[in-house]
Amino acid sequence: MKIMVIGGGGREHAIIKAIRKNPDVEIIYALPGNGGIARDAQIVPIAATALPEIVAFAQEKQIDYAVVAPDDPLVLGLVDELTAVGIPCFGPEKKAAIIEGSKVFAKDLMKRYGIPTAAYETFTDLESALHYVEDCPIPVVIKADGLALGKGVIIAETREAAQTAVRQMMSDHVFGKSGDSVVIEEFLEGPEVSVLSFTDGNVVVPMISSMDHKRALDGDQGLNTGGMGTIAPNPYFTPEVSERCMQEIFLPTIRAMNEEGRTFRGCLYFGLMITAKGPKVIEYNCRFGDPETQVVLPLLESDLLSVMMKVTAGTLQPDDVRFSHDSACCVVMASQGYPVKYEKGFPITMPDDDLIFVAGAKKNEAGELVTSGGRVLGVTATAPTLPEAIRAAYAKTEKVHFANAFMRSDIGKRALAAISREE
Ligand code: AMP
Ligand code: GLY
């Protein structure tokens, strides 16, 4: 089989490494991939959002199956376009990807179908939004409606900060059209859990739970990033919480999307907060999370490609998806200064290891792998217990070298504290 994977980060590297295990795979093309992915797939310099070029490439190479990993091409409708020319794809159609593409859509869906989430109001006009934040409870959370590279969420600790955020989104258009509508919502508290799931619209099969570490610095300080590390499983996702989520969130969401004529087939990501009043949805993503995928897929025992193809065919069964009982930890090695300003182009030396996922690196003219992005590598280890997985991941980072490398030193610390409280 000839496979095409759209995207070029650490998540896509993890997906490609898992797909490669299927013996029927002859070749994997990565569009655009990256210099590290080039070890595992043939990289093709076509951007993930260049829809006509991707479709033409897929037809020329007679691709048998495509995986669309990032949010932008999904929201733009790449799956619809590939399907229209007869290429089966993993990923939701455009009308289902809206669950991530529009926060207003997602919030209204949850309200209509009684799915627990933070209370909210939506606004399309600046004056009404400003009026609302004059006397709403503080802190308050302000979200741009559309995709904003993960940056469209502001947690305002003061009324002035809330007003500034509303003005920046709705009047200064700092997130472009994404800020034409905003959601203003209740600030929730509690541990966060990421649950990726496979769904074909009939059944929903949660993958092993995970925990992201979004802030740049130790102790959850500093700016929000794409994610500085992950662990799995997430100790806050107990069997009781899991059962509640299935009944109150996962199944109702799948049914709601069917009801709306927007059947979701692909990976639906539930960003959850476990509040004192039970689990609530913070966000939906229409795709695998990054860097959650870098801890989830290494623990998947089933064949990823077969599971994906069953999702596309609508024949998924819960037994198709099996996970190991081990734990995993992924430490992101970033460029010093990320997520703001950082230098690139430093040579990387690292061991040949199937669990080091390359996110921001390219080959230079001399053929060396050099840094090319903020998040450079996701260094993952698995082990029978979480403390061992964390130790092993950090031990592995010591064998990786590039100038200006930066990482958090406390990935998994909160999870370990939660486990020791339980014991
Ligand atoms: P999102 O892009 O929607 O995942 O939001 C980014 C981060 O902001 C989340 O991972 C949470 O840590 C935080 N966040 C979003 N919504 C809320 C909320 N209603 N209450 C508290 N924190 C939130
Ligand atoms: N790690 C969060 C996300 O992929 O959106």
Verbal overview:
The mean pLDDT is 95. The strands form 6 sheets. Strands 12, 15, 18, 19, 22 and 23 form a 6-stranded antiparallel β-sheet that branches. Strands 3-2-1-4-5 form a 5-stranded parallel β-sheet, sandwiched between helices. The longest helix is centred in the middle third of the chain and has 21 residues, at 239-259. It has 423 residues and is of the alpha+beta class. It contains 13 helices and 23 strands. A hairpin with a 2-residue loop joins strand 16 (266-275) and strand 17 (278-285). The protein has helices at residues 10-19, 51-60, 71-76, 78-84, 94-101, 103-112, 126-135, 159-170, 239-259, 293-296, 304-313, 386-397, 413-422; strands spanning 2-7, 27-32, 42-43, 65-68, 89-90, 120-123, 140-144, 153-156, 182-186, 192-199, 204-206, 211-212, 215-217, 221-224, 229-232, 266-275, 278-285, 327-335, 356-358, 361-363, 369-371, 375-383, 405-406. The relative contact order is 0.13. Bound molecules: adenosine monophosphate and glycine. Residues 118, 141, 150, 153, 155, 185-188, 192, 214, 271, 282-283 line the site of adenosine monophosphate (AMP).
